[in-house]
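To assess whether ligand presence alters the predicted conformation, the chain was also submitted together with glutathione. Input:
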Amino acid sequence: MSTEPSTKKARTHPPYELLYWPTLPGRGEFIRLVFEATSTSYTDVSNESKDGINDVLAVKAEDSTGDSDGNPPAFAPPALRIPGEGKGGKNLLLYQTPSILSYLGDKLGFAGEDEAERHWIMSHALTALDLNNETHDTHHPVSVAKYYEDQKEPALLKATDFREARLPKFFGFFERVLKGNKSGDGKYLVGGKLSYADTTLWQVLDGLLFAFPKEMAVRKKEFPTLFDTFYPSVKEQKGIKEYLASKRRLPYGNGVFRHYEELDRQ
Ligand SMILES: N[C@@H](CCC(=O)N[C@@H](CS)C(=O)NCC(=O)O)C(=O)O
């Protein structure tokens, strides 16, 4: 699979390598969207090479104390490897989605226009990632290591609270942020241009539309700036639109965003 965006910038950056589980969007998608929206080429290691999964497994190996370039081990994917950008010109390895977003946001001009915007963007991205984590907990409320089928009853309780209390709280918050950002016209969370806060929130909304179609059909009407202006606008942004139509955009699978009929609004 090629990950060369159609409108690739001249190479002014290192050959970024995304290390994430193959075949599903997952948390890797927050990183992919940054590359795609900024027309930055990258390698999606596990999706592009047969043995790429071994690289993912190696950085998170539970007996690892770090790699030969002096990087610490990663707790869990996604991770980003940046050849030549580490200490002493070695490879740099970063992990944790927000840490990677922040690094790339600064390098690729996708993190606002000044220091205040830079921090607001991080705050909003973290809030969207909190919503992502809470979505995960609707189907795995007891244990990440156990099957959904082994925690169906608590999942039902968790999902009900999530739909009834948490979704409107998060959506109401982002609706207010969009309305309050006068230079964003409902299209951007911060300032007058797209940032990784926007792509991160967009991905969570898109996943929720897949996971909870009935609930979202109702909620959409309650938050018009979020769903009638912001969501479709991000989808049409240069780089994102082409990406979503490409084979690089992977279908939702057994990741955070799963559709279980019984967890949706009845
Ligand atoms: N907060 C971390 C969470 C990382 C995470 O949970 N990664 C998942 C895949 S999306 C995983 O493989 N977890 C394995 C584990 O936690 O043992 C981040 O955002 O990067």
